[in-house]
Amino acid sequence: MSKVIKQRLSLGMFWPTFDPFLFCAFHNDSYPAGNEKLGPQASLAGRSIGQDFAGIGGWRMYHGDVVPGFPSHPHRGFETVTIVNKGYVDHADSMGAAGRYGVGDTQWMTAGSGVQHSEMFPLLRQNEPNPLELFQIWLNLPARNKMVEPHFAMLWNEQTPNVAFTDGEGNHISVKVVAGSLSDQQGNQVAPLAPPPNSWASQSDSEVAIWLIDLPANATWTIPEAVVGLNRTLYFFEGDAITIAGEQANVSEAYVVDSSLPLELVGGDKPARLLMLQGRPIGEPVAQHGPFVMNTRQELQQAFFDFQRTQFGGWPWPDNDQTHGVEIRRFAKHADGTVETP
């Protein structure tokens, strides 16, 4: 194995991650046309409604019973970074915030001391399929920030940097920079949109990077080296065989690599898409149970007690699977009433 590549792992729906990341799910669903309730125009017979992860027909209802997705549920002690490449997500939360985002947008939510939210996948088109593709990444918080006030930020697709590179054969490589700056081909540093203020990614020495790499067929691009001691993982989720650091790499594999060395990618016969997660480890104990991530078992027990007692502010919406109408539009309404659009 190349000295750059430390480990290679197989990928399913849930991907292996390393400190400071806790979890990464890849949702790739070929939803059919929608109905008037924003659910699928298809029979739900044979599905385990409320717990449908089987992928029958190429799509899942997850915990939804009318609209696919994840009805209201709590979190504490970490952040969710949800990158939607295709389709839409309807967000609602216990802060009173709401929104619809998709087609390239990212929502970055700091759960902090506790929040409930719902994440539904409205099937807005009634005359054509509604494909959905998204990553949900869980980024840990250090102990000092686990109980901060909840917060969410929208990183709209139109404002998220895409850094373009051209190789010696004229192939155009694109890198979407959700987090972590990247120098362009002329050596100019391209900074991402700001993460929430209490995020581990907002710390200047955390070296957190979240990049989406589009590598055309037969193209060559080298991921620049970073500093020593980071956890850097490359997820190859679409395409055919490519070469990573001189080794043949297969789709649906992850590659844990040395962050201090450059990493050459050479495309295969088809375009390839990869996700890179990188960060300096927080290096603290992790106590996790379901939707809560703390440092000790006692803190976990307190999280469950607090949720049972306060419901993290309660649920101010009429439905646990709240959606936002049939109009195809993107928006975010924050807890203070401020509304933003792309």
Automatic annotation (TrEMBL):
Q: What note does UniProt attach to the cofactor annotation?
A: Binds 1 Fe cation per subunit.
Where in this chain does the record put each Pirin C-terminal domain? 213-313
Which residues are noted in the entry as Fe cation-binding?
A: H73, H75, H117, E119
Q: Which Gene3D superfamilies match?
A: Jelly Rolls
UniProtKB keywords: Iron, Metal-binding
- Higher taxonomy: Bacteria, Pseudomonadati, Pseudomonadota, Gammaproteobacteria, Oceanospirillales
Question: What is this protein's record name?
Answer: Pirin family protein
Identify the Pfam families for this entry: Pirin, Pirin_C
Cofactor(s) essential for the protein: Fe cation
Per the UniProt record, the source organism is Maribrevibacterium harenarium
MF-aspect GO terms: metal ion binding
Residue ranges occupied by any Pirin N-terminal domain in the UniProt entry: 64-139
* Family to which this protein belongs: Belongs to the pirin family.
